[in-house]
Amino acid sequence: MHQKTLAQLSALLQSKQVSATELARLYLDRISASNLNAFLHVDPELTLAQAAAADARLAAGNAGVLTGVPIAHKDIFVTRGLRSTAGSRMLGNYTSPFDATVVEKLAAAGMVTLGKLNCDEFAMGSANENSYFGAVKNPWDLSAVPGGSSGGSAAAVAARLTPAATGTDTGGSIRQPAAFCGITGIKPTYGSVSRYGMIAFASSLDQGGPMAQTAEDCGLLLNAMVGFDEKDSTSLERKPEDFNRLLNQSLQGLRIGVPKEFFGEGLADDVKQAIHAALEEYKKLGASIVEISLPKTELSIPVYYVIAPAEASSNLSRFDGVRYGHRAAEYTDLNDMYTASRTEGFGDEVKRRIMTGAYVLSHGYYDAYYLQAQKIRRLIAKDFAAAFTQCDVIMGPVAPSVAWDLGAKSDDPVANYLADIFTLSTSLAGLPGMSVPCGFGQGEKNSRRPVGLQLIGNYFEEARLLNIAHQYQQVTDWHLRSPE
Questions:
Q1: What number of CA atoms fall less than 13 Å from residue 334's CA on the CB side?
Q2: Given 53, 60, 228, 432, which is the most exposed site by the fewest CB atoms within 10 A?
């Protein structure tokens, strides 16, 4: 049963072949037996109460397509009844008095919450090794990272501890862990999914999205997650749409843009081969390949690591030990309390980004760094606009390599940053992007580590992206494979 997709589980629930309570118990048992450190907070009593309510809705005949289906939330979304820590000591015992809008919407759809998922502290990281509560392990290879920052979400879906999970993507944090763990994940157009109740990292970049086995599953989740929220000033007001409405559309005549900058020096041969094999499958489906250029790709790393830390330094200034969060036990005065509380509460990577952000925003450096980064950000978006005059969708690798070993890059933050080179530009432009499983690496070690194909669409073309991914998943089985 745990190998079923979300869509299959929904059909079983609707036909009364299984109950929400039975599904909840199944997944809770799998979670308790897991050794991945993917879940941070689980409350079986709360989960079973939600499952019983879902069963009542199913029995009454007023259930929706997601009613009774289990889900788990990245611990960057605040929740009532479950701790919301953002993977940090700073919020180690924090319980929110309200639900994030994403959590609220999925609960209204009848989904059953299994628990909260581990993540890099305040969503800052590419390997899920920055969590105060310990690193998450990749279920395909326990010696490998699962990717970050939504590594707990990706690992849990890949290990079939949950059929679906929420994630957030600031610079690639849905797509990269989805690629490393062999699942499907999509970051929608910036502003599509409410950020209210999402513990902020970089407000102009953060975007929530779904992670599941298939593109069809992600579409079902997006249907519930997307929508205007007056509580979020960056939320976009658009007409509701069915994101799965195009799933059976032919790909005949589709123009796939392949950026030459995505296939240069630094891309591992085994990743390159898997991506080229996927492109060949698309050609069989009627698509054509067009070489394009995204010349500002290499600038996305310095631009991102100016803008994101700048916004983080502002957002995280609220954690001062006064109102909520960690407060140091010993201090001499107010200033010492601030210093001691933040020193103890934040991890090394968060401190590094706060200090970087404060520096680039300081007097004398704002114009030289932050303002220039925003100008280049606009040029990156123009590169994409030009590319979409030549093609319908852009494809390439999600990351330069498969997942690396746990601890391999812990002492080299720049190496971690470089792993985001293919995902950052999409986030900076606010475009939708997704990762689809397309194979495995090569060699004794890498053959157990998945490769993800990245799909990038124009603004608000999530339905088209999901169709393109779905058609590929109809002729391949990478998305259905699971670790032992």
A1: 1
A2: 60
**Contact indicator for 221, 256 with CB cutoff of 8 Å:** no
173 a catalytic residue: yes
Q: Is the distance from CB of 101 to CB of 196 less than 8 angstroms?
A: yes
Residue 149 designated active-site: yes
74 catalytically annotated? yes
Cβ burial, residue 231 (10 Å; 0-12/13-18/19+): exposed
Among 84, 126, 173, 425, the one annotated catalytic:
173
Backbone angles phi, psi at 387, to 5 degrees: -65, -35
Helix or strand holding residue 40 (H, E)? strand 39-41
> Nearest Cα to 229, choosing from 205, 197, 194?
194
pLDDT exceeds 90 at position 307: yes
Confidence (pLDDT) at 410: 87
Does 414 have pLDDT greater than 90?
Answer: no
Cα–Cα distance between 262 and 78 in angstroms, integer?
36
The one-letter code for the residue type at 68 is G
Q: Do residues 182 and 481 lie in contact, with contact meaning Cβ atoms separated by under 8 Å?
A: yes
What string of DSSP letters covers 209-271? EEEESSHHHHHHHHHHHB---TT-TT--------TTTTTT---TT-EEEEEGGGGSTT--HHH
Tokens of 446: 């890498």
Q: How far is CA 243 from CA 215, 240, 359, 461, in A?
A: 10, 9, 42, 9
Look up residue 29 and give its amino acid. Answer: D
> 200-210: b or e for each residue (b if 16 or more CB lie within 10 Å)?
bbbbbbbbbbb
SS3 state at 415: helix
For residue 401, is pLDDT > 90?
yes
Q: How confident is the model at residue 296 (pLDDT cuts 50, 70, 90)?
A: very high
Asked if pLDDT for residue 86 goes beyond 90, the answer is yes
Distances (CA, A) of 59 to 1, 55, 112: 21, 6, 16
Residue tagged active-site, from 10, 19, 74, 192? 74
Per the structure block, which two tokens stand in for 144? 């490998």
- Give the largest CA-CA distance in the chain: 70
Q: What is the pLDDT of residue 313?
A: 97
Q: Which of 131, 149, 401, 425 is catalytic?
A: 149
Peptide bond into 427 cis (omega under 30): no
Q: How far apart are CA 401 and CA 188, in angstroms?
A: 24
